[in-house]
């Protein structure tokens, strides 16, 4: 056995998770974003997840922790579930070590309290985007990540939020706001 598999295994163990389905590994062992989710896909998946939890209730939380279920893990993104009021990560498909842990004091490499920002953004009826710096799967250095977050009406648990993100260097806050506005508009019926 060569050194590359051990190096990758060590990196995965260090970061605490395996690359998502959309993360490709080249022959040198580097992980890249060959298959990137779009901002529109992230918003659609988050809203689908909120609707799913509305229908399933508390029993639906476990479905987000199964990383073999590709429904909530696609391309280079995934849906996570958290509670601002309870200050806890409820479900995370790639980081089971975070489930049950407090989130509000988590800070990115630039000192941003990312979940505090996500809690504010999810108060918007149409959801919102939060920018922070977070390592891509398989990397130690943080990259710009933008996550879309939305509240989820779950019976007997009123303060639930869901989110998913992408790594993007180009989208601006106004680009992201426009995407939210465009997707919130009623769709015209097709004849």
Question: Can you describe this structure?
Answer:
By secondary structure, the chain is of the alpha+beta class. The chain has a single domain, classed as Beta-Lactamase (2-Layer Sandwich), CATH 3.30.450.20. The strands form three sheets. Strands 6-5-9-8-7 form a five-stranded antiparallel β-sheet, sandwiched between helices. Strands 1-2 form a two-stranded antiparallel ribbon. Strands 3-4 form a two-stranded antiparallel sheet. The longest helix is centred in the first third of the chain and has 18 residues. InterPro entries: Double_Cache_2, sCache_2.
Summarize this entry quickly.
The chain is α+β, with helices and mostly antiparallel strands. It contains four helices and nine strands; from the N terminus they run H-E-E-H-E-E-E-E-H-E-E-E-H.
Keywords:
single chain, 191 residues, alpha+beta, five-stranded antiparallel β-sheet, two-stranded antiparallel ribbon, 27% helix, transmembrane, Double_Cache_2, cell membrane, Calcium:proton antiporter, transmembrane helix
Count helical runs. Answer: 4
Overall body shape = globular
- Name the structural class: alpha+beta
CATH architecture descriptor name: 2-Layer Sandwich
What's the Cα radius of gyration? 17 Å
What do we call the CATH topology?
Beta-Lactamase
The run of helices and strands is: HEEHEEEEHEEEH
Please describe the biggest sheet, giving its number of strands, its sense, and whether it closes into a barrel.
5 strands, antiparallel
- Separation, N- and C-terminal Cα atoms: 61 Å
Work out the helicity level: 25-40%
């Amino acid at each position: 056995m060569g050194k590359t598999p051990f190096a990758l295994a060590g990196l995965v163990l260090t970061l605490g998770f395996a690359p998502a389905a959309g993360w490709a590994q080249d022959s040198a062992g580097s992980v890249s974003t060959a298959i990137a989710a779009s901002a529109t896909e992230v918003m659609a998946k988050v809203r689908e997840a909120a609707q799913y939890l509305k229908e399933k209730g508390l029993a639906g939380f476990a479905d987000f922790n199964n990383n073999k279920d590709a429904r909530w893990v696609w391309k280079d993104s995934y849906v996570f579930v958290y509670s601002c009021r309870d200050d806890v990560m409820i479900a995370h498909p790639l980081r089971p070590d975070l489930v049950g842990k407090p989130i509000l004091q988590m800070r990115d490499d630039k000192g941003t309290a990312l979940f505090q920002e996500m809690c504010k953004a999810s108060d918007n009826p149409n959801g919102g985007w939060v920018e922070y710096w977070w390592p891509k799967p398989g990397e130690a250095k943080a990259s710009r990540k933008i996550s879309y977050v939305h509240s989820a009406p779950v019976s007997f648990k009123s303060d639930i939020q869901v989110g998913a993100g992408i790594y993007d260097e180009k989208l601006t806050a106004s680009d992201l706001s426009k995407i939210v506005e465009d997707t919130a508009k009623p769709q015209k019926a097709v004849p």
